[in-house]
Design brief:
Blueprint: H1 2-14, H2 28-41, H3 45-54, H4 70-78, H5 82-93, H6 99-137, H7 144-164, H8 169-175, H9 179-188
Helix pairs in contact: 1-6, 1-7, 4-6, 6-7, 6-8
Length: 192
């Protein structure tokens, strides 16, 4: 069960984002600017911790988060908090016109990133997801309600994977040179 839940969570987190905004493709400059904002945002860790404590925790784990707009949603949640103003300064320092533009760019960067990751791992991911679904369905220690909840989560992960595959080729090409840096900055940055 732990393996199935871990796989479900891993696929959920890795299968992000349908295209959110703008007809223009990402550029190398957009991607670099986005990554640099994440690096600089690490200086706001205390502000983000405070913000997270103030936000009501409504996630009971039964619904899939909407990964299609995770950065845009973060911007909306931050509005009105002092962290918003400080983050806005960082965003503008890196050439974004607004927090909304930054959020939409982040959504696209992550959609393209996950699409590239999935291209490299697709056959293995599909097999692992099928095996995880079998483990859920055949686990005698899970109630039918628990199985249904896990099936729903797996279905959401599958849908998110499909959406990530729709990343424009130009966006994927802009992100490819930055894959290692994206991994590094997101592993060290737990604010988002």
């Amino acid at each position: 069960m732990k393996r199935a839940l871990s796989l479900c969570l891993a696929f959920t987190l890795s299968a992000l984002f349908p295209l959110v905004a703008a007809a223009e493709s990402l550029t190398d400059e957009n991607v670099r600017a986005f990554i640099n904002t994440l690096k600089d945002a690490e200086t706001l860790e205390d502000d983000f911790d405070k913000l997270n404590q103030e936000l009501p925790d409504v996630d009971d784990g039964s619904e899939m988060p909407d990964f299609s707009s995770i950065f845009s949603d973060s911007v909306a949640k931050m509005r009105g908090h002092e962290a918003y103003d400080r983050m806005e300064e960082i965003v503008e320092d890196h050439g974004f016109d607004s927090m909304e533009q930054w959020g939409a760019t982040g959504d696209r960067v992550f959609q393209a990133w996950m699409a590239v990751e999935m291209e490299a791992q697709h056959p293995e991911m599909a097999r692992e997801m099928a095996a995880a679904m079998d483990q859920i369905n055949n686990n005698p220690n899970l109630s039918e309600a628990q199985k249904e909840q896990m099936r729903t989560m797996m279905g959401g992960a599958t849908a998110a994977m499909e959406n990530a595959r729709n990343a424009p080729e130009a966006d994927k090409e802009a992100v490819r040179p930055h894959m290692d840096e994206l991994r590094t900055v997101t592993e060290s940055d737990s604010s988002y």
